[in-house]
Input
Amino acid sequence: MPPDINSLLDATNRGLKAIPGDDLQTVVNEAYTAVGGLGPELSRFIKNGSKLAIDSRAALPEQLNVVDNVAPILDTQTDTSDSVQAWASNLAQITKQLQDHDQAVRGIITTGAGAAEELHQLLDRVKPTLPVLAANLASVAPVLVTYRPDLEQLLVLVPQGIAGVQAISVANKGTRQAYKGGYLSFNLNANLPPPCTTGFLPAQQQRVPSMVDYPDRPAGDLYCRVPQDSPFNVRGARNIPCETRPGKRAPTVKMCESDEEYVPLNDGMNWKGDPNATLSGQGIPQLPPGTAPAPAGTPQAPAAVPPPASPIAVTGYDPATGTYVGPDGRVYTQSNLSESATKEKTWQQLLLPPPGS
Output
């Protein structure tokens, strides 16, 4: 049951009498000053509040969902408070830097338009060649990625190597020190070791040095094709490490990427066999893996000069016995080449054929 209206009025009167009259007048005057003339605005505020309450009632499930799930969202703000503070601190530092370098920033803004125009003109000038450059870089990039360890090693070792060379190449004449530094030696070791001729065109197909034309080189690869553990040309192409196949060495990238293994032509002492097909059955020059060999009877490289009547070959010999290996792979002996020869040898005799030949 509602309370008695007389009791309510009596309570109101007692409350009003408890308030001093002057203070009550001040409250009424201040209230009039605060809201006087705001009837339309208060009416609109009340109406919009009522509409908001009605719309909130219609969307009550969604609001309850927000209220129920707002805790994790607020927790993320709490958990990332350090990051937010760090971001605010960094932002403050950036704005402080901009404030300290205000003139420089103004200069960039002032001259930025001209610089952008010059950059635009530069791009217009390089527009014809820029696609070619980009295509070349796109081709070089995978190679750089493949050889990245080698490039890193090069960047590390080259400065150390230069420092070492500079250290030992300092002039030390007349100084008292145990280590005398690096000295050049001009002792000639002629034909030691002998040059590698295995894997190159034989003498019958080599060009005469006096020719000045520039024909296309023969198809295939020409390199020293001796065993990989041979003492000749140890830094040759046959011993290049394969980047994508650890432990494998091959002369070409195609052979590195294929399952083909390097097979030498011979023991590395001299060129042997047919001019374009050695005793091991491999052709000279060496064609890439998967390439069909040339038909039988077709030379792989055109002869620069007509072949002589007799084959010409160069080989080393054993000075103790005078034995050497001929172009046909057989062992021959020439007695006047040995150290035990009875007759005195002269340089003219080296230009003459042996007696009885």
About this structure: The chain is about 45% helix and 0% strand. Residues 102-126 form the longest helix (25 residues).
